[in-house]
Amino acid sequence: MSNTAQTLDLTAVDAYLSANLPGYQGPLVADKFATGQSNPTFLLKTPTRNYVLRRKPPGVLLKSAHAVDREFRVQRALADSEVPVAKMHLLCEDDAIIGSSFYIMDHLDGRNFSEPTMPDESNETRTAVIDEMNRVLAALHMVDIDAIGLSDYGPPGNYFERQIGRWSKQYRASETDKVPEMDQLIEALQSNMPVDDGQRTLVHGDYRIDNMMFEKDGTKCLGILDWELSTIGHPYADLAAVIMQWQMPVGNEGRGMAGINRVALGLPSDAEFIAKYCERRSLNGIENFGFYLSFNFFRMAAIIQGVLKRALDGNASNPERAMTLGQYVPVFAKRGLEALDM
Fold it and tell me: What is the full DSSP assignment across 158-183?
């Protein structure tokens, strides 16, 4: 494994921040976050304030993957919108500094829920947090992309056609073993593509509760994290991503809500969450939701196949977890096929 995926050249980072970040004062200490499979992420501690450094992993990478420059751009553009994001400070695209490009942002001093069931919280907190998650998602999809300078953030055309093509190529590029279910799913998605309804919004691409930071003692969202997969696309992809996550097993591994009594825990049903989202966006419901759900199972299977490939190549941020995740490729593919029959 490449050691630079786990450590930082603090001398180089300190020198760069001293020269480029107004108000920065060392000494500097860095701790690597355990989460963040794709782009290694570090908490930078100084005597006066904390920052976060997020970098491309070292080594040979798939084309268009790990685009930290895009993450920086979209969060900076959302700074004055209704969508909560961390403050962006610096983007460094000079690989000579620490071995790969990186950006610096504020550290959000809040709390993160790894599971949507929030086992240590009250029913009132669970209800409020999930509703806030719904509110922020609707706000994201109502952002005026022209007004914030992101109209060129994604190509025109059918988002799902584009994404299925992209992730099919990414999957083939990182394929390690034949997965028949994945081959079937790719073909099924291509043949069940809905007609483009013209919706074109900013999409996060990996919208889940564990990619959000909330107030330490409240339920307000302080910021959405991990924008690597963001683009201009179709909003139902993000909405279906939430529902897909909830269909996973309960617990730290699946981080879902399969089989639980949601009413008893103050949690909404899938239908209630979708209905509230539609209400916030003044929509009359969503047809063919099974396709959007299937698409998300497919994309997640392709993503974790890439994580597995990086682990085998020695470039994974968390190699042990990457190997574990890799076993789920056929599981996600099978669930994608089942979703198309909804």
Answer: -HHHHHHHHHHHHHHHH--S--HHHH
Three-state secondary structure call for residue 12: helix
Domain coordinates in residue numbering, the chain: 3-106, 123-339
Under 8 Å between Cβ of 270 and 248: no
CA 302, CA 309: separation in Å to the nearest integer?
11
Distance CA 135, CA 224 (A): 12
**Is residue 259 classed as helix, strand or coil in its secondary structure?**
coil
Q: What is the pLDDT of residue 208?
A: 95
Peptide bond into 116 cis (omega under 30): no
Superfamily classification of domain 3-106 = Phosphorylase Kinase; domain 1 (3.30.200.20)
Q: What are phi and psi of 135, to 5 degrees?
A: -60, -45
The alpha-helical segments, DSSP class H, found in 215-286 are 235-246, 262-265, 270-280
Res 1: pLDDT? 30
Low-confidence residues of the chain, pLDDT below 50?
1-5, 61-62
Is the domain defined by 123-339 classed in CATH 1.10.10.10? no
